[in-house]
Amino acid sequence: MSAEPGDVRAAVERTARAVMTGNLAQVMADLAPEAMAQLMQLASGAQGLSPAQLPSIDGFEVEEVSSSAEEARYRVRFRSSMGSVTVATTWRPMVGQWKVVEIGLAGFELAEGGGPPPER
Prior knowledge:
- This is DUF4878 domain-containing protein.
- By secondary structure, the chain is an alpha+beta fold.
- The protein contains three helices and four strands, in the order H-H-H-E-E-E-E.
């Protein structure tokens, strides 16, 4: 796989689809080591509302924030019946493919009548 800037959106969408379908192997393959700890913090943040804790993610939206040959920033909004969670990601080419090097919570929104986030 090349690390051309045009390939980064495909990588972002592949990873978002993997989160939505629960394909943890793909998610882990797309994370650089430094993003792993950030992902663990994200899973326990947002007052219990994170992509890992959303019931049945039914869709996602990808928004490019900035992109160059060295780095790309994207926001991904995951939707479910309970609400939505937006994560901010920074991607860099590593060993011939784009990988997440930074990930953090950019926002969350409970659906009307969605109730409190589930306890984990």
